[in-house]
Amino acid sequence: MSEMASNVPIGNGTLPGGQVGQSWASSALQSNLILTFGAASLVTLFMWFFISYQTSPLKKYPGPALAGWTNLWRLGQVLSGEYAPRMKKLHEKYGPIVRIGPNLLDLDFPELTRTIYATDPKWKKSNFYQNSSSIIDGKITYHMFSEVDNALHARMKRPVVRHYSVPSVLAMEPLMDKVINDLLGHLQTRYVDTKKECEFGEWLGYYAWDFLGIVTFSTKFGFMEKGCDFDGTLAIADKSIDYLGICGQMPWMDYWLDKNP
What are the transmembrane regions (predicted)? Predict the structure, then answer.
């Protein structure tokens, strides 16, 4: 009888009762180890956040409480589409310096624009800009906008900087006048004469892209002529700006979403 009680039917055979107990004990031990590891990880993560928050040199600056702990607060503001008005309200509440991230301040000092955006090595661009880089032949390639190294950026800019000088820009004015006249002509014939409703914001986009085309490639892209985003370029550009705005708040996301090999 004792021998029968110590065996448990399993399929067409039997499994000794002692092995059942050992299997259960092993599973329980594994579960306990997983729970212990998970709890230890959470405690470690909390302590890391807590110590970082308490020792940060930015702690003295005002701002939303959650923003001092994580960039997720700022990411949420961007996703909501209320980032700009939210920043305005925060400056009205806290003043010209607002902490909007564990390591990020938003400054309302227009007089510092030239200082911060100068090429002085001590004012290095953040990784926000690197998200706009491209992958060429399997390698991340940076351009003038995405390159954060000041020396490399200066080297990239050197061949073209003269084209953005005041005299060069003024020389483009006749081209701008021509494209503006084209815009006014399209608005007149398509909307004023026909009394149709005009999505003026869209037409400003068509104008901007056609102007860029004529000053860069000596020919317009044709958005005003066709009266629409005929090849999807503007839609892609809009999505790219949205992507850069979102991933720019937590730049490491770009390596998972776009640059992940």
Answer: 33-51
